């Protein structure tokens, strides 16, 4: 597979795969802005030359926007191959590139978020196990931290703030970042629906690494709490949100 490395120099010209291609769309502009600000922190974004959802995004764990301790590890933000590009070994190609690059940079291994059973917006645990990853830590909400060590050493782990996902605020509370492009579209939609239906709602936009690394949830790109309890990391559409408030 031919691979393009997205950088500050070419990001405006490149399609970033997981959102629509129009640069004027808020999903595209917010994601590209977030990526551009992370390149100086060592973020790498590799994608197929073929148009579609086929990419890997990774960053040194000390700069990852997740509450983990993973000394000298590389953290994978996202590995996504879908649609007609699936079934061609592209995910393996991308992962191998990440492994090769991480070894060359002297990293001790890779880590990534997943769960016991496949969840939306998280890596597939069956695929990770097939590639040699194992779970090394788990939060109360079932989100797991998986790792692929290159050498013996201390396994990555969650920070204490994320082990027991719970907040004191009542009502609907969403923590989110611009790491996932879909939040730029759907968080304001959910916020408007909550006002329309008189549902107590608060959106907490995480805009810096320190806040992300001290968040009360392992998944910082999107995490919904209701009356203090963690509910989901799945980005809700209008239909799903309305169904949720109707059932409560």
Sum this structure up briefly.
The chain has 248 residues and is α+β, with helices and mostly antiparallel strands.
Oligomer: single chain
The N- to C-terminal Cα distance equals 48 Å
Number of helices: 7
Question: What is the 3D form?
Answer: globular
Beta-strand content bin = 25-35%
- Structural class comes to alpha+beta
| Main sheet: strands, sense, barrel | 7 strands, mixed
Strand order of the largest sheet: 1-2-3-5-6-8-7
> Count of DSSP E strands?
13
> Regions with pLDDT < 50 over 5+ consecutive residues?
none
What Rg, in angstroms, do the CA atoms define? 18 Å
H/E series: EHEEEEHEHEEEHEHEHEEH
Q: Which percent range fits the helix content? A: 25-40%
* Mean pLDDT score: 95
Please specify the SSE layout and strand pairing:
Layout: E1 3-6, H1 26-38, E2 44-48, E3 54-60, E4 68-69, E5 73-81, H2 90-104, E6 109-115, H3 125-130, E7 134-138, E8 143-149, E9 157-158, H4 160-163, E10 172-176, H5 182-196, E11 201-205, H6 209-213, E12 222-226, E13 229-232, H7 238-246
Parallel strand pairs: 5-6, 10-11
Antiparallel strand pairs: 1-2, 2-3, 3-5, 4-9, 6-8, 7-8, 10-12, 12-13
């Amino acid at each position: 597979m031919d691979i393009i490395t997205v950088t500050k120099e070419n990001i405006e010209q490149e399609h970033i795969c997981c959102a629509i291609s129009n640069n004027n769309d808020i999903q595209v502009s917010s994601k590209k802005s977030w990526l551009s600000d992370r390149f100086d922190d060592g973020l790498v974004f590799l994608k197929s030359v073929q148009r579609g959802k086929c990419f890997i995004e990774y960053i040194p764990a000390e700069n990852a926007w997740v509450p983990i301790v993973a000394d000298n590890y590389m953290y994978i933000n996202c590995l996504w191959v879908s649609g007609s590009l699936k079934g061609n070994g592209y995910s393996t190609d991308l992962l191998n590139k990440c492994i090769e690059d991480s070894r060359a940079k002297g990293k001790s291994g890779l880590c990534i978020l997943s769960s016991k059973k496949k969840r939306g917006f998280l890596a597939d645990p069956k695929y990770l196990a097939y590639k040699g990853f194992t779970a090394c830590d788990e939060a109360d909400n079932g989100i797991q931290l998986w790792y692929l060590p290159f050498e013996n050493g201390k396994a990555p782990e969650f920070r204490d703030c994320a082990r027991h996902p719970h907040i004191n605020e009542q009502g609907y509370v969403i923590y989110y970042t611009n790491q996932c492009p879909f939040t730029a579209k759907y968080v304001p939609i959910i916020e408007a629906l909550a006002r329309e239906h008189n549902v107590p709602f608060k959106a907490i936009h995480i805009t810096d690494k320190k806040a992300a690394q001290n968040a009360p949830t392992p998944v910082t790109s999107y995490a919904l709490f209701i009356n203090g309890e963690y509910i989901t990391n799945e980005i809700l559409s209008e239909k799903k949100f309305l169904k949720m408030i109707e059932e409560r």
